[in-house]
Amino acid sequence: MDWMIWIGLLVLMLLSYMDRMKTMGAKSWLLIVATYLACQFYVNLFGLVVPVGFFLGWLYAARTKRLHLAKALVFGLITVLAVAYVPKISLSEIGMAAQIKRETEQFNQIKAVARFTSDSTINADMQAAADTLKKNSPKSTIQADDPHVLFDIWVLRNRNVAVADLDWLWYEAPRELHFYWQSNRPDQLTDMEYVIFHDVGYMGVFKRANSASPYRLQSIYEFDRLKWNQPQIP
């Protein structure tokens, strides 16, 4: 994030001098850039930024009467303060925030959000529980690695409900426990699972690296209801 601030303000500074482009030579441009770079030198005293480079640059500009360096000094000072005090946000965090915003637009109110990695224990725990159910009902045709199965197991465990077997989970549980479920796959690498009760709903977002790899739970959203197409609960 720091380099984005640094480069962005450097470009803006250079553009601010475009009205003088015809009257300045290469040495003037180099001096402007050097002044901006000098401003990046600062001392951090117990959390307080002292822009030493800015003060030195200001003294130089004042003594040599190079008033055109004022813009470079201002942009340099802004850069130092921004880099020092603006919260550190990575590009991946920005992308994650944008993804969360897209995924939550369909809900009226979000109660909780949880994020996981492919190595998170929740994925291993769900798969282990599904594999155990599969062993106990070997004649079932339901796949133990299906995201719908995995997410239903998590939801029912979260509500302290024991799962009898895979067939019960798939066919009988929605009617007996009065919930609606739906699966949505917007692309080959994403699976979105919905489980909605009368009082609360859950959405699980599963991702996979490629079409041959298994899905891994990435996000869980707990919400009150959908903004549109609220389903009928059995």
Protein model, in words:
- The chain has helices at 2-16, 26-38, 52-64, 70-85, 91-104, 121-136, 147-158, 166-177; strands at residues 43-45, 48-50, 110-115, 180-187, 190-196, 201-207, 216-223.
- It has 2 domains: 2-85; 102-223, no CATH class.
- A hairpin with an 8-residue loop joins strand 6 and strand 7.
- Helix 2 (26-38) runs antiparallel to helix 3 (52-64) and helix 6 (121-136) packs across helix 7.
- The model has no long low-confidence stretch (mean pLDDT 87).
- The chain is elongated and about 90 Å long.
- Helices cover 47% and strands 18% of the residues.
- Strands 3-7-6-5-4 form a 5-stranded antiparallel beta sheet, with helices on one face. It has a two-stranded antiparallel ribbon with strand order 1-2.
- It has 234 residues and is of the alpha+beta class.
Strand order of the largest sheet: 3-7-6-5-4
| Class inferred from helices and paired strands | alpha+beta
Domain tally? 2
Q: Main sheet, how many strands, which sense, barrel?
A: 5 strands, antiparallel
Radius of gyration: 29 Å
Overall pLDDT: 87
Globally, the shape reads elongated
Q: Quote the distance from N terminus to C terminus.
A: 49 Å
Q: What percent of the residues sit in helical stretches (DSSP H or I)?
A: 40-55%
Strand proportion: 15-25%
Give a topology summary.
Blueprint lengths: L1 H15 L9 H13 L4 E3 L2 E3 L1 H13 L5 H16 L5 H14 L5 E6 L5 H16 L10 H12 L7 H12 L2 E8 L2 E7 L4 E7 L8 E8 L11
Antiparallel strand pairs: 1-2, 3-7, 4-5, 5-6, 6-7
